[in-house]
Design goal:
Number of domains: 3
Number of strands: 18
Structural class: alpha+beta
Strand order of the largest sheet: 1-3-8-6
CATH topology of the largest domain: Immunoglobulin-like
Helix content: 10-25%
CATH architecture of the largest domain: Sandwich
Radius of gyration: 41 Å
Largest sheet: 4 strands, antiparallel
Number of helices: 3
Distance between the termini: 110 Å
Length: 338
């Protein structure tokens, strides 16, 4: 027969144990905090000797109001290297949530390339939390970049058939040296009789092509970029020149006529002819200063528009610039044709 008192005591004891467990869980829960990465390491990859930083969020769980400390082994980097192991630090070394802490990873020139893991630990009393980040140490490959100044060719705008220029500079990275051949990768928008570009190195070896610059001793090299637009043949200017010269030939002829002519009536007629010849010559003098135009096959003319040229290059190994279309913001040049 079941003893009701014993059964009641057992139930009461079980209830008390459950309440104690719930209370302990509640107390423990109320004394916790979390560490999360607000922003990843930036940059995520560095060269030996570089640094990287990240922001860590510190948040309270429940009623936690303690101080989270990073002053005792705040972070650890693995794998540990014989020399050059990256160093990490957290600032500030303590904070009360909600707060943020900033992680800094420093590498040395002797830090071996590779993928590293960073373990950040925060403590408050007997409670500790951790967060893990990864970053990469890589050797900087020797390369080069292109820079244009000004980015709008001058003059701009230009009429169809004119040219405009700008300066392209090849900047070496690290100790890069070599020869770089410049080119226009693309021009937009695509139209019929679009403008085209050419390059002339401002310095370098005479044995190199005109569009190839020589980068020596890590110093930048420059080239002039010329943008040519297509326009109508300059027939009008040629005709002006012919008429211009013809009128000038009239002057000595008229002088000879005047010398050989006698009589008041003939002299009266000679002076208006002389004035007419001089006036015609003055009116056609601007033909001497007319801007030459670029003849186009089949009479093609570059349409009115604003054109954008994307630049590229290739060195003696075929390497493209570090700021090419697939590796960063490429160098570009614009020109307006009116």
């Amino acid at each position: 027969m079941v003893n009701r008192r014993q059964l009641l005591r057992a139930l009461v004891l079980a209830l008390l144990i459950s309440l104690l467990c719930a209370a302990s869980v509640s107390i423990a829960y109320g004394q916790e905090f979390t560490l999360t990465v607000a922003s990843g390491l930036s940059p995520s990859a560095v060269d030996p000797g570089g640094t990287s930083t990240a922001t860590i969020n510190i948040a309270a769980i429940g009623n936690f109001d303690g101080v989270v400390s990073f002053d005792t082994t705040p972070c650890a980097v693995t794998p540990v290297q014989p020399t050059g192991t990256p160093l990490c630090a957290v600032s500030p070394d303590s904070a009360t949530p909600p707060a943020q802490a900033f992680l800094t990873i420093s590498t040395g020139s002797d830090t071996p390339p590779g993928l590293y893991t960073v373990l950040v630990t925060g403590t408050s009393g007997s409670v500790s939390q951790q967060v893990t980040l990864t970053f990469n140490v890589v050797n900087v490959s020797e390369s080069y970049t292109l820079q244009v100044s000004p980015t709008t060719a001058t003059p701009s705008p230009v009429p169809a058939g004119s040219i405009a220029t700008t300066i392209v500079t090849v900047f070496p990275a690290a100790n890069y040296t070599g020869t770089v051949t410049l080119a226009c990768l693309s021009v937009a928008p695509l139209v019929e009789f679009e403008p085209y570009c050419s390059f002339t190195a401002t310095s370098g070896s005479a044995s190199l092509p005109a569009d190839t610059v020589q980068v020596t001793s890590g110093a930048p090299a420059t080239a002039t970029m010329t943008i040519t637009t297509l326009g109508p043949p300059g027939v009008t200017s040629l005709r002006h020149w012919r008429v211009f010269y013809a009128l000038w030939f009239l002057i000595p002829g008229l002088a000879l006529v005047g010398a050989c002519t006698t009589g008041t009536r003939a002299k009266k007629l000679l002076w208006p002819l002389l004035l007419l010849a001089v006036a015609g010559a003055l009116l056609l003098t601007p033909a001497c200063n007319s801007t030459p135009v670029t003849n186009s096959l089949n009479g093609g003319i570059t349409p009115k528009n604003t054109y954008t040229f994307t630049l590229t290059g290739a060195d003696q190994t075929g390497a493209a610039p570090g700021n090419g279309p697939t590796s960063g913001s490429p160098a570009t040049v614009t020109l307006a044709v009116n």
